[in-house]
Input
Amino acid sequence: MRRAHPADAAALARLAALDCGRVPAGDLLVAEVDGELWAAVAISGHGAIADPFRPSAAIVGLLRMRAAQLDFPARAVGPSPSRPRRLAARRQPTA
Output
């Protein structure tokens, strides 16, 4: 399991053709077995392609789990470090 790089373009196109799909957009994670790409998943998004002639369903599941981990900072909800969170004003106790 690794990130795809430009040298994978031909192998990804072949994989997409086997899967009757398109290469997912954006950064990809790929699963390579004995030097051959078996599956690829978009890190941000839900796109995936896999070799339908290989037992690749479990590999796609693992790739999706890892992609979710890598994409988590982009999807995290909360204040960004560059933008401080506003604190609510506290009411002073009345006597």
